[in-house]
């Protein structure tokens, strides 16, 4: 009997059983365990089948909100979709026969030369009629020569030197801000003060900034003083790359001026790390006081708080690997690199759209809003001026009337 149950658990779920799952889950609200016992499958098999046939998409919701939802509201199972996905997955068996010499050369070119990912190739290159998982499978088997380590990075543990609790962090932030106010200096805003709309990427115009440094010598010192300033818009993942001569405040400010001349009208806030080039009073004064743009600073040793910028910096290393000197790199070359990155589709982050496709309509919408707001403010000022003139005339008439009475 036990052997029979084991064999039963290894069989594939049939189409009729999928319709039974659809009824028991959507209508009767049976649990995964109950459905598994009814059909003779494990709870894990039923759970995977529910995920496979789920027709709801909550990718725009954060994890905490999603977990607080009722599981039956989070998963709506479709037997038709489950059957389609199962057949599609089984059709991938034996895909090595689809790999022709021309297709092999094409995929290797897109990955190794153009630095596209398998997801970008599968979704956008017309002559590649296989999925990203098939491309990865061919690479794993050695059938195509691509740098697979770029797409299978191991996560490393990073020591985070932060305060023990959120309350302690807030007290420390308030203490520093009070001290800065007492000294008459500008306030450095913490990332914990950043609005929720910025954190959730709901609003356009919030940028992250960082410096990418050149190669170092055997002593761990930089061979040259140049660096690349990268600024990434959080909602659209649009990147701007500016070359700076050194990390000194004057050169960093000059590099930011070039960025501002190009995209200043698309900037609401900046998020930076605690690098000396960004926490200097000269940079803070130029951006936050002269330009009126608020800067939020991340916690020390917390690069994940600028995850968008870090992701784009890793992609930039495809074009300028670690060990590259930036001395012979000019701004025209960086503009071409930024254009190539901004025209690459991003499957997960942007729904297979390229950053430039999302950036342009967002930018135009922002400018329309600014014009409407300016027009509204101008109308209010005119109304206030007319009201003031009317009040003055009324006061003058009253004064003349009082004089006549005397």
Characterization of the model:
This protein has 406 residues and is an alpha/beta fold. The protein folds into three domains: 2-90, no CATH class; 96-151; 188-357, Nucleotidyltransferase, domain 5 (2-Layer Sandwich), CATH 3.30.420.10. The chain has 19 helices and six strands. A six-stranded mixed sheet has the order 1-6-5-2-3-4, with helices on both faces. The termini are far apart.
Q: Mind sketching the topology for me?
A:
Layout: H1 2-10, H2 15-27, H3 32-39, H4 43-52, H5 63-68, H6 71-74, H7 79-90, H8 101-112, H9 118-124, H10 132-140, H11 166-183, E1 189-190, H12 196-199, E2 206-212, E3 227-233, E4 239-244, H13 249-263, E5 269-272, H14 276-279, H15 281-290, E6 294-297, H16 307-319, H17 331-342, H18 347-350, H19 355-405
Parallel strand pairs: 1-6, 2-5, 5-6
Antiparallel strand pairs: 2-3, 3-4
Short summary:
The protein is α/β, with parallel strands linked by helices and 406 residues long. It has helices at residues 2-10, 15-27, 32-39, 43-52, 63-68, 71-74, 79-90, 101-112, 118-124, 132-140, 166-183, 196-199, 249-263, 276-279, 281-290, 307-319, 331-342, 347-350, 355-405, and strands spanning 189-190, 206-212, 227-233, 239-244, 269-272, 294-297. A hairpin with a 5-residue loop joins strand 3 (227-233) and strand 4 (239-244).
